[in-house]
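hey m, so remember when u said the tokens were messed up on ur end? i reran from scratch. heres the input so u can diff it against urs
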Amino acid sequence: MSAVPPPRRPGAVSAVPGAVARSAEQVRAEQLRAEQARAEQLRTDQLRTDQLRTDQLRADQARAEQLRPAAPQPDGITLLGRLRRAHPGLRAVVLATVDDPHRAARALHAGATGWVAKESSLARLLAVVRGVLRDETHVPPALLTGVIRELTTARRDRTESERLVDTLTPREKQILRCMVAGLGRQAVAERLYLSPHTVRTHMQNVLGKLGVHSTLAAVAVARRAGVSPAEPVVPPSIASAP
């Protein structure tokens, strides 16, 4: 005869299912905490990697900056030319370390009206300054022959360059002025409302007539001839502003 289990009392609840439910919740909570910990670790690792990359990039940029050659500084004669263009009434006397006919000619061409060696006496310097204030040009006699030769050569080169530039058509001179301004083929085409192919043809004609083989050489000829660069294009919003 089989045993019959005693009847369950009303209101009695088994403890086993509740324990199983709590155990499952604990497992899910532990899994969630583990996933959060892994995500936090991944985030920390990513931040550390990004910081290392940033530090490496800064170090590379610092090394590149140290290795980059310094831009050449303009010499005194170049600065003198800029000052004279900005202030045409300026009168300048060059105090030269070395008497060099080439540099003296450059200085006179840039607008200087006096050249004095640094070892000259104060009386000599004052005499030159007073002469310059009277619109005189003072060059040491020992340099005079060399300076005249340099100026004559420069003028001869300029005259030849002017002759070459005069062989260009008006359109080719427009192209040359754009080249002097540093504009590329596409920029020239947009400015003059021409096709890039037409601009290329004009540029080739300019090089041929000037007897050169590169844009840089054409620009050098143009500068010797006194060709000014094309004026920059002013945006309509700026041009129409009061």
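this time it looks ok to me. The beta strands are 93-96, 114-117. if urs says something different then somethings off w ur setup not the seq
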